[in-house]
């Protein structure tokens, strides 16, 4: 297990380095510069800004400087917001994105697992079809469409919930629901398939043959084993949800990281795009790392195999 | 107890005769694997509903813009933001353009991006996965580690960066999907090829002197097509979704060419007043994704050998 963890750590660090390097050079070869779009700046002023931010130095020098700073946890200054560091953008935006993400996960996870289990237990019955219908529809309606539908129904027509912004509990209801439905749908699908597969396994028959009660068989033999694929998908899911779904944040005008990411890309704000990409990548890599370790806890067979 | 048996004359028996060739005769036409799959798929009503919806949308996407008297870019500022009417079936948008035509021109873009954006990455994945699994050793090790690393990085970030580089438009999006979407397929094809290459039919073919290329693409890859076809079908809605998503945040297809995501984005701007401008593209995106998901589910059930028992 120790050797395995070390190997995974090396791969994770390598991944992050590759991501940072690739994104750095990909961004710099784009045509244009961050100061071009501001109409008030003359070409001369633009040159001064470019010099000020060190963008006129050789690419390799910039790269080495950036990576050096990155190792100290410093991601530089935004080129659009005066006097804001990328770090401060992350510390102000991330809690908002994370809070929205955690809310929707907290809603989606129990309901999704419950529906999946229920649907597999009642296979072919009306309840199963209902759960399958919910999950297929949830997977098929993109979250940004769900979000605007919810806004239209609950904010424009019924006027019972605020339409956008982020000022309190009531404001969180609609975006959470929009995000949760998509998560819930895919969780239900995976859990149902996984439960159905587990049900036909020999050890479940053995457990029944030994005379175990139905509850024990379901909880300790079926669900525990059926959770393995859920754990696999949970890693990337948690990461992407905590980082904030860009579109949901855009629709509901939520001041999370997603907005900053999209705006920085369209405005060529190199440092912000790069910083958020690396932050997101690090988050995802960490989540995958934890998932692999969690595997061992859920399924001892994997622990032994490693 | 009477010990009398029924006497049958020997002449009552006619020798049937033993014919080896007769016993081995196949009395019914044999059903190939794919014919079997097709038969099961045709029986699945939900999957067929999905297929019919897909065909209907494709037909409308091809024909509707040709038949309609309006063009997708013609602006008539006298009739902006109208509701559905006899002349403009889905109404007009904020520049007085006919939404019915725009929606179906958008369908061409969205469906094409969805299909090519799923098929091309899968083909790349098949080739890389096939080669990697067949040759094994160092090549395999190298490719698999590369995939491990690249798969850790959220695909959307790469797609956005590549789109910035190659520009916006349907071709750019498909290119970005092609560069980022092949890893999953490559992984599963490689896994299957690893199992299959030890089988007798491969050995037989190798003994007969088949080349590496022939072994990979004539013998191994066709045997992995089942799962690839399913993942390709499931990839279409996700490509359509990603295109809509990108266009929605303003990074995808650039105006004036419409796509569903872009139409939805335009609809959001006015949806408090004219909700139909958002709901029409939104419903079409969802319906298309639903159809492909239903069809893909049916296809998977038809192909999964475990359900055949």
Rounded average pLDDT of chain B: 81
Query: Mind summarizing the main beta sheet of chain A?
Result: none
| Bulk shape of chain A | flat
**CATH C-level label of chain B:** Mainly Alpha
Total DSSP E strands of chain B: 0
Shape of chain B: flat
Q: What value does the Rg of chain A take, in angstroms?
A: 24 Å
Structural class by sheet pairing and helices of chain A: mainly alpha
The helix content of chain B, as a percent range, equals 55-70%
Oligomer: heterodimer
- Major interchain interface with per-chain residue totals: A-B, 40 and 35 residues
Largest sheet of chain B: none
- Write the CATH architecture name of chain B: Orthogonal Bundle
Number of helices of chain B: 13
Distance between the termini of chain A: 6 Å
Separation of the first and last Cα atoms of chain B: 52 Å
CATH homology-level superfamily of chain B: MetI-like
- Report strand % of chain B: under 5%
Any overview of this molecule?
The complex is a heterodimer of chains A (306) and B (309). In chain A, 77% of the residues lie in helices and 0% in strands. With 306 residues, chain A is an all-alpha fold. The mean pLDDT of chain A is 81. Chain B contains 13 helices and no strands. The longest helix of chain B is centred in the middle third of the chain and has 37 residues, at 99-135. The mean pLDDT of chain B is 81. Chains A and B meet through helix 1, helix 5, helix 6, helix 9 and helix 10 of A and helix 5, helix 6, helix 11 and helix 13 of B.
Helix and strand arrangement:
The complex is a heterodimer of chains A (306) and B (309).
Chain A: H1 2-28, H2 43-52, H3 59-71, H4 86-121, H5 126-140, H6 143-157, H7 169-199, H8 202-209, H9 214-242, H10 246-251, H11 257-266, H12 270-298, H13 300-305
Helix pairs in contact in A: 1-12, 4-5, 4-7, 4-9, 4-12, 5-7, 6-7, 7-9, 8-9, 9-12, 11-12
Chain B: H1 20-23, H2 33-43, H3 45-67, H4 99-135, H5 137-151, H6 155-166, H7 170-180, H8 183-196, H9 200-207, H10 212-220, H11 225-248, H12 260-270, H13 276-303
Helix pairs in contact in B: 2-13, 3-4, 3-13, 4-5, 4-7, 4-8, 4-10, 4-11, 6-7, 11-12, 11-13, 12-13
């Amino acid at each position: 297990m120790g050797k395995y963890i070390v190997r995974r750590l090396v791969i994770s660090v390598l991944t992050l380095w590759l991501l940072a390097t690739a994104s750095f050079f990909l961004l710099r070869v784009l045509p244009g510069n961050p100061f071009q779009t501001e109409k008030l700046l003359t070409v001369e002023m633009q040159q001064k800004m470019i010099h000020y931010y060190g963008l006129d130095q050789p690419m390799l020098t910039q790269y080495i400087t950036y990576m050096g700073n990155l190792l100290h946890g410093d991601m530089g200054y935004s080129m659009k917001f005066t006097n804001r560091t990328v770090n401060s953008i992350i510390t102000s935006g991330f809690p908002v994105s994370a809070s929205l993400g955690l809310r929707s996960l907290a809603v989606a996870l129990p309901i999704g697992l419950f529906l999946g289990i229920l649907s597999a237990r009642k296979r072919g019955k009306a309840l199963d079809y209902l759960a399958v219908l919910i999950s297929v529809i949830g997977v098929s309606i993109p979250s940004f469409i769900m979000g605007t539908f919810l806004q239209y129904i609950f904010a424009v027509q019924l006027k019972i919930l605020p339409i956008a912004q982020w000022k309190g509990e009531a404001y969180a209801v609609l975006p959470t629901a929009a995000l949760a439905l998509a998560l819930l749908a895919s969780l239900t699908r995976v859990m149902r398939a996984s439960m159905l597969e587990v049900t036909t396994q020999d050890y479940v028959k053995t457990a029944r043959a030994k005379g175990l009660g139905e509850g024990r068989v379901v909880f300790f033999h079926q669900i525990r084993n059926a959770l393995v694929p859920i754990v696999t998908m949970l890693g990337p899911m948690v990461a992407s949800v905590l980082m904030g779904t860009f579109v949901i944040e855009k629709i509901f005008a939520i001041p999370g990281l997603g907005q900053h990411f999209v705006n920085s890309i369209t405005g060529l704000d190199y440092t912000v795009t790069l910083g958020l990409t690396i932050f997101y990548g690090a988050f995802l890599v960490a989540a995958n790392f934890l998932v692999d370790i969690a595997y061992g806890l859920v399924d001892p067979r994997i622990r032994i195999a490693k | 107890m009477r010990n009398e048996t029924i006497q049958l004359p020997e002449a009552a028996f006619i020798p049937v005769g033993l014919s080896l060739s007769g016993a081995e005769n196949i009395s019914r036409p044999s059903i190939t694997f794919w014919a079997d799959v097709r038969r099961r798929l045709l029986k699945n009503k939900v999957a067929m509903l999905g297929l019919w919806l897909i065909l209907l949308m494709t037909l409308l996407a091809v024909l509707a813009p040709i038949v309609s008297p309006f063009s997708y870019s013609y602006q008539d500022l006298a009739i902006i933001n109208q509701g559905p009417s006899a002349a403009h079936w889905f109404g007009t948008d904020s520049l007085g353009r006919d939404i019915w035509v725009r929606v179906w021109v958008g369908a061409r873009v969205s469906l094409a991006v969805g299909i090519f954006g799923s098929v091309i990455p899968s083909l790349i994945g098949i080739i890389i996965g096939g080669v990697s699994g067949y040759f094994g050793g160092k090549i395999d090790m190298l490719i698999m580690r590369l995939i491990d690393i690249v798969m850790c990085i959220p695909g959307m970030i790469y797609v956005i960066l590549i789109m910035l580089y190659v520009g916006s438009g349907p071709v750019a999006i498909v290119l970005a999907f092609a560069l980022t979407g092949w890893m999953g397929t490559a992984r599963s094809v490689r896994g299957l090829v690893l199992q299959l290459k030890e089988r007798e039919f491969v050995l037989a073919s190798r003994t007969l002197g088949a080349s590496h290329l022939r072994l990979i693409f004539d013998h191994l890859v066709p045997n992995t097509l089942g799962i690839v076809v399913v993942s390709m079908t499931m990839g279409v809605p996700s490509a359509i979704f990603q295109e809509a998503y990108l266009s929605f945040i303003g990074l995808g297809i650039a105006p004036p060419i419409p796509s569903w995501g872009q139409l939805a984005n335009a609809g959001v701007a006015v949806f408090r007043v004219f909700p139909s401008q958002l709901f029409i593209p939104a419903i079409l995106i969802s319906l298309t994704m639903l159809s492909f998901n239903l069809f893909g589910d049916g296809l998977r059930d038809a192909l999964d050998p475990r359900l055949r028992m």
